[in-house]
Amino acid sequence: LLPGNPGWIDGCAGVIVEALGRLVAHDWAHGVIPWWNPYSGVGMPLAGEYQPAAFFLPFVLLLGLPNGLLIMKCVLQIIAALSSYAFLRQLRLTPRVALIGGLLYAFNGTYAWASDGPSEPLAFLPLALYGVERARTGNWGWLALGLSYLLLSGFPETAFLVGTLVLGLAVLRVWCAPDRLALGLRIALAGLAALLVAAPQLIAFLTFIPHAYLGTHAGIDDGTLPLAAWSMLLFPYINGTFFYGNQFDTWYALGGYTGLVLPLLALTAIGGRRERGLRFLLLGYVVAVVGKQAGMPVLTPLVDLIPGVAHTVFYRLSEPVIEAALIVLACFTLDDVARGVWRKHATIAASSALTVMVVVAWRLDRPMRHILNQVSHGPVSTRQYIVFSFAFGMSLVIPTAWLLLRRRRPELIAGALVLEALVLFAFPLLSARHVRPIDTSLIGALRQETGLQRFVTLGPVPPNYGAWFRIASLNHNAIPVSYTHLTLPTKA
Asked: Hey, how many other C-beta atoms are within 10 angstroms of the C-beta on 364?
């Protein structure tokens, strides 16, 4: 019904996760450990490249099925929801609030926009957070499981960035624990167990890195979000669907969104009394992440002091940390409302802060709106996207703020939060496409004619899909990539 992509921004969802993941699943199904990809380029590491998630069992096996990428994403969203519910219940939030938190996390902005590697570790962030809470009772196995899957899930940058939130919670719990040494040892033991479980993947990756080209990851990356992106965090489709008007740079910089109701409730949580340490820890994470995304002079150097952070594509891949922190804070607010212990002044402060953010984001988006007003892409106009986004957001956030101030109808507050999450998540599905048939005669001809040779193409078979069809192709798309593949064309 609309132009754009149905739930993915980055094409690596296809050329890496889908294409190479299918090869991984094929290898495991035939009793072959997926160390090597003989079909792409002149042969490439498969496990060592990390993104194919060669040891992400059993989930990577789903990629061998028809519509495997969609099935795996759905399964990971279910795990994300259940893990979030368990974590929030461990924080002693009411079951209904924990259920809402699970729904919010399963349908967060990153899952709505990403199906490539960076979205795969997200399901195991709440599982690891739950593991930290269980470690306080003596059971460190859940933490080891969550950390293991963070390391195995195919995207080390996302795993590292969301892992800092797990580390922050662990430090907070150890600092406040009466038995600090015992809890610290249990958490360290869980981390060591996770490293041992993920050792085949980590060793393959670390031994490949010295021989690989890393692109921008080799240096310091202090890139910031484009100006138009700030409004799209609050009003995700104010500038149209994916790549509307051929505005690629802004969309590629976005790793998700928050909407309006979620930050309102999250900021309101600061007025609560219970778990104040955790509330301020989460707020501090949001401030630090947003500050680095914006390139703020003081916060950016401070965040860069964390080892490894400066080498990540932080402005994009850190968005899941913001979403997770805001969801937990919003659930604290819902729990406070359900218990009747929230404070009016916190809602006033939160509403004022959100109003300032909306005004600033609207002004920053002015150049983008000027560009898009001159184009027409699809049945919906630029102005209609703007009107819909603003009307939908305000129709939910204003009544929510009023109900908070009046201390009424907590179920309506929760309903507005869930409704916003589901509508914003489902909107890209309006761009879903019919399945295009595969030209089996072309594939058969390639298999018959190439033999031990390799083919090259400028389009009919995308990069890495030679591995999907198990036909040797020079076309490849990967980071990290072996220096051999970079020097070979020059020599030729």
From this structure: 16
